[in-house]
Amino acid sequence: MAATYPQIVLFGDSLFQGAIEVSEGFSFTAALQSQVKRRFDVINRGFSGYNTSNALKLLPEIFPPAAPGGPKLEYLFILFGANDACVPLPTNHQHVPLDRYKANLKGIIGHPNIAAHKPKIFLITPPPLDQIRLTELDLAIGHKAATRHSTVSAAYSQAVREVAAEQGVGLVELWKTLMDTAIAQTPGFDPTQGFLLGDPAGGLRGHLEHLLPDGLHLSAESYRIFYNLVRPLVGSEWAGTPEEARVGFVLPEWREAPWLDEDAHLADPAHQL
Asked: Which domains does the chain have, with CATH numbers?
């Protein structure tokens, strides 16, 4: 039987779909795959435009039932909410009410096709929103108003925190980390004034301009910050061991291969790659 690699699955909307791209020399998905090379397969299941209702309905087509000899889902990172948090408009139908959003997240976590693997699950708070920039772009393509509001999006991120605590799963605090970064890089901004960066009420984008170029999607800088949040969550199986130990390799390191004696000539330094 062929060797199967355990999987790390990135399940979400365009924020995960875009994680596979290379921007300014960095790719979130590639960085994670490099971290776990020969130990896990990183599977990108990001779907632009999806909300949690779409994801839950189509989940059986995305995650097949566990099967003997099939790959094990070891880690599951879930990032939905940017679309659920859309405000209801005649020109946009992505909105999912907050209570339904929370129920959908619980439905994804507990779905039999996922639960059978007993993976390590991490919910990710959707990132902040630069409503000032997003409003400009929304109006330019024909919407009568902004499709998303900063304070509404923040409420959906809070819902993720609550679901993670209720369900006993991990939490990746992307919203707070990016907002804290933006505040720290925006001289003179006082977060105690009662409005968020990117909120039209305050009229200041600050460093969100660099973290969220279109007001919604992540820049390379943001993806690097995101990866630095995820990196320590994966690899406890071999953390602290010498790299030479090759702990967790699905197939043996070549020096430890059972056929080495049969192919002793490969030990010649001239043949080492």
From this structure: 7-271 (3.40.50.1110)
